[in-house]
Amino acid sequence: MFTDPITITINGSAKTLARIKSTGTSSDYASSDGNYTMTVSHTMKGDRVRTLIKVGQRVVATDPLSSENDYAWLYDQRVLDRPIVGFDATTIGYLVAADNAWIVTAGVVGKLFGMES
User: Fold this and answer.
1) What's the rounded Cα separation, in Å, for the pair 49 and 84?
2) Residue 110 Rama label (left phi>0; alpha psi -120 to 50; beta)
3) Which residues contact 100 (CB under 8 A, 6 or more apart)?
4) What is the spatial distance between Cα 81 and Cα 35, in angstroms, rounded to a whole number?
5) Looking at the structure, do residues 66 and 107 belong to the same domain, yes or no?
6) Which end of the chain has fewer surrounding CB within 10 Å, N or C?
């Protein structure tokens, strides 16, 4: 089990997320103001394990047509889908690091936002 609370850093600002729910192989975390969330869960099916890491950020957004304010959520999620045997944590870490490095390369997020593939 991860430590409680979890700290994530967004744009240089640390956000503390306390565990608010834990059931077996799944835990939910949230900041005290509810503007940041994280879910970590694991599902086994056959000879595979799927791990979900999902981070959310809530903002107040104004609808440009009606000028009404409402909450909007942004989520970043990763699914690690691995066989039970064949890969160790170090090897998985290399793949995760490569993925992270590519995503934060200059211009990649903008291209993803523009729906390039």
Assistant:
1) 6
2) alpha
3) none
4) 28
5) no
6) C
**117 & 70 share domain:** no
Residue 1 within a domain: no
38 burial type by CB count under 10 A (0-12 exposed, 13-18 middle, 19+ buried): buried
Instruction: State if pTM tops 0.85.
Output: yes
Note the pLDDT tens digit of each residue in 47-88.
999 999 999 999 999 988 888 999 999 999 999 999 999 999
Nearest CA-CA partner of 108 in 57, 75, 3, 98: 98
Q: Do 46 and 76 meet the contact criterion of CB atoms below 8 Å apart?
A: no
Residues 71 and 91 placed together within one structural domain of the fold: no
Residue type present at position 110? G
**Backbone torsions φ then ψ of 35, nearest 5 degrees:** -85, -15
Domain ranges, residue 93: 87-117
Calpha distance 83→45 (Å, rounded) = 10
Instruction: Report how many domains make up the chain.
Output: 2
